[in-house]
Amino acid sequence: MTFKRYPPRGRHRTRRGHHSPRIQIKPGADKRLNRIFSKIGVPEKHPFIPDSYQNKAVSAIRKGDCLVTAPTGSGKTWIAVQAISDVFKNNGRAWYASPLKALTNSKYTEFSAIFGKENVGILTGDRKENPDAPIIVGTTEILRNQLYDAMYRGRDLETDLVVLDEAHYIGDPDRGVVWEETMIYLPSRIPLLMLSATIGNAHKIAEWLESIRKKPCGIIEEKKRAVPLFPLFLHPSGTLYPLLGEMEKKGKKRLYKKVIAYLKQSDKPRFGGQLPRMDAIAGVLTKYNLLPAIFFLKSRADCDSSVAMCENHFPREDIERKNGRIARIKELCETIAHVKNHRHMGLLRKKGVAAHHSGQLPGWKLLVETLMTEGYLDAVFATSTVAAGVNFPARTILFLNSDRFNGRDFIPLDATQFHQMTGRAGRRGKDMIGFAVVIPGRFMDTHFVARLIHAPPSDVESQIRLDFSMTLNLIMSHSPVQIHGLLDKSFAAFLYHATRSHGRNPSDQKSIDSGFLWREFLRHLDFLKEKSYVTSDNRLTESGVWGSKLRIDHPLMVAEGLRRELFPDSTPSLLAGIMASFVNERDMDDESLKSEHVPDALINVFERIASGLEPFAKELITAGFNAPHFFLKPAAVLYYWAQGGAWDDTIAIWSGAEGDLAMLILRTADNLRHIASLSDVFPVAAETARTAVNLILREPVVPSLIQPTPYPEP
C-alpha cells in the first residue's frame, strides 16, 4: 500500500485554490455516542484476580521458555513478578532486562517494594547498586555484556531466570541485534520469559528458540484489551463522531457515514492555523468526560506549541485536585531541583498540562511521567516515543498524524506501533472504556488509521548485523567453526531457511542467511588481522583482548587512539570533550564556536587526534566500514561542562535542545566507562576516564532522584 503524503506545512487550499474555511470549535457529539459515553466511569474495586492468560503464562515458564504477547497495559508485569517469586522462594537468582533506563529505574523501584530493597539490584551503566543481589534489574545491553564475559571466562551466567521485557525490540533497527544476541548466547538451562506487545509472528520466534535452545517455548497470546477501546473522529467543528460504522462483508467495520461524507467534501472545513486550538479540543474532551488525554504529535515543536495554547482557555478543574498537584510538584522538585525553572512549570502547576519528548531533560520527563501516572495531569502533548515502555496511561489518546519520524524519515505507522499508542487509552482499574480520537489534518490519512484498528499485529524481522565489537567478543571465546554455528542459530538464518523450506524464494532484502552473516564475519576478521587485533590462527592479540571490552559504537577508532597514545590521559575534562566527538552523530556548526570556548589545549588535542586517526579512518572507509566524522563543537561543549560550567551557559554554547545535549553527555559517559574498564592495560587513562564520568554526570543531566554510581566504585 502506498502511503499518501499530504501537502507541506503552510496554508490549506482547496482544489480550486481557495483557502478552506475555518470554523469555530464548539463541543458536540453524534447521538450514537450517548450509549458509548454512558459507559465512562471507574470500575468497582475488587480483589485482584489474574486473567486466564496470566495464569497460563506462569504455568508455562515453570515448564520451559515462554513468550507472552499481549496488548499494552494488560498486566504482563504481574507474570514476571510471579515467575521471579518462584525463583526467589527457592533461593535462586533472576535477571529482568528492559530496553529503557527510565523503565528500568521504574521496575527497580517497583521490585524493591515487592521483594525488599536489599534483595534487588540495578545495572544500567549510570547506576550500579547492589549488583550481587538475587534479583537484578538492568538494561538488555548490560545483560548481553555479562553473557560475553561469562563465555570468555568459560562460566555460566549466575542466574536462574531471565525476563526480557519489550521482547518485540528484537525487530528494532538500531538495537534489535542486542536482543537477538542475548537469546542466542543465553544458556538453555536458564528459563527465558519474554514479554511483548502483540506481534504477528510469535510462533516463528518460538519455533526459532526451540530450534536453538532444544526446549519447549510456550506461546501465550492475549488479544483482548484489558479496557475496551472505542475509536472517535473529531470534526473541525468540535463534534465527535464514531470513527467506524456499519460492518463490511469481510467482517470489518467501514468508516462512519458522516465521516465519509466529510472526507469527500472538496472544500472541507479545517482547523485553523498550523495546529488546531488544543485548548478548544480539550474543552470538547472535558464536556464528554474524556480526560486525561495524550495527544500524539509529529514534532517536539508541535508539542511545545500545544502546551503554550493552553495558557488562557484550558478548562477549569477542581480546586482540591489542583492544590494536590501543586503540592506533589513541590515535593518532587525537592529531588529534581532543576525543573523548578522550566519554562512550562507555570502551566504544569496551573493547568495540569505538559509536553513530553526527547528534546527535554530526563528530570522533566520523569516529573511529567510521575504526575501523569499518579493522575494529576489532564493532557500531555507527546511524540510517539512515549508509547513504548513507559507507564503513561490516559482515558483518551488523540492522533494528529498517521505517520511517525523514525530518526531519518517520516514513515507510516505500522500496526504494532499503532496498537502500542492506543494501548495507553483506558487505564486498567481506573476506566471502563478508553478512546482513540482521529483529528483530520494535513498529515492524517483517516482511511489508513481505520484499517490499522483491525490490522493484525506486525511481524518482527531479525536485525542482526556484524560489527567489530561482536566479532572481537565472539573470537574471544569461540573458534571460527563455533562462530559459524552461532551465526547459523540467528533468527535471520531461521527465517531464511523457513522461507526456502516452503518453496518460496527469499528475495526480500530482510531475508539474510547464515552465509551472508559468515561472509560479514570474515570481512571483519580480515581487517582485525590486518590491524593486529587477531592473530593469523584466529586468536585475539593483547590489543584484541582489551579491545573486546570496548563495547561501543566505534571500538576500533577508540582502540587505535589508545594504542597510539593520542588521548589526553591526564586531564579528565579534555578526555570527556574528545570522547564526545567520537559519540556525536550530528552535523555540527563548528564555525559558530567563540574563541573563548575553545582553549588552545583542546584545539591541540583535537587536531592531534584528528590527524593521528585520519589514515586509520580512511582505511576503515576503503574497506567498507563506517568511521565517525569529527566535529570540534561537541568536544568544546563537553569540555566546558566537565570544567564545571553552568548548565545554562553550556546550553548556550551547544545552541540546541537540552535533551539532545543530555543524551550526548550520557553516551559520552558510557564510552568513558568502557575506557575505565581497561585499568589493567591503561591505568592512567582508566583513572582519568573515571574522574571524567564523575565530572559530567551531575544535575541536571542526571536527576538527584536517580544519581549514578560514582567512580571509583566501592
Written description of the protein model:
The protein is α/β, with parallel strands linked by helices. It folds into 4 domains: 52-221, P-loop containing nucleotide triphosphate hydrolases (Rossmann fold), CATH 3.40.50; 229-425 and 443-453, P-loop containing nucleotide triphosphate hydrolases (Rossmann fold), CATH 3.40.50; 464-546, no CATH class; 549-714, Sec63 N-terminal domain-like fold, CATH 1.10.3380. Helix content is 44%, strand content 11%. The protein contains 28 helices and 20 strands. The strands form 4 sheets. Strands 1-11-10-20-17-14-16-15 form an 8-stranded mixed beta sheet, with helices on both faces. Strands 5-4-6-3-7-8-2-9 form an 8-stranded mixed beta sheet, with helices on both faces. It has a two-stranded antiparallel ribbon with strand order 12-13. Strand 15, helix 14 (362-373) and strand 16 form a beta-alpha-beta unit. Helix 2 packs parallel to helix 3, helix 5 (140-153) packs parallel to helix 6 (176-185) and helix 23 (572-583) packs across helix 27. The longest helix has 23 residues, at 600-622. The radius of gyration is 27 Å and the shape is globular. 47% of the residues are buried.
